[in-house]
Known about the structure:
alpha+beta, endopeptidase fold (from Nostoc punctiforme), five-stranded antiparallel beta sheet, 4 helices, elongated
Amino acid sequence: MRQRGTPYVWGGTGNGGYDCSGLMLRAYRKAGIHLPRTAAEQYHAFSRKIGWNQLKPGDLVFFSGLGHVGMISKPGYMVHAPRSGDVVKEEKLSEWRRQAFVGAVRPDPKGVRQWAKVLERRKEPAPPMLTATL
Length: 134
């Protein structure tokens, strides 16, 4: 909440500005939880999804095809970095937001560790392909 008024900066993770996922990354890092960088990765980092009616403060909420993320600040409100030309702000969850809602997660260290393992496996080289000889 102390970042309210900080400018939106595409790709920003602090020191002058934030984008939506960069703000969540920094907030959770302060709590000792390391999130992936992008909104889509943050959503997929946790297998347990939270429904609209179960949202609690601290939950990450995702909108518009995983193109945007915010954090529930209190019942019915979220804090987020909305878009270029705007600033970090707290906003009431509107009917429009509900229609754009994709899902939510409740970050925990165990979930992030599981996501890190998936990412590590993706970095491993593919097994060699068999080739036919004539």
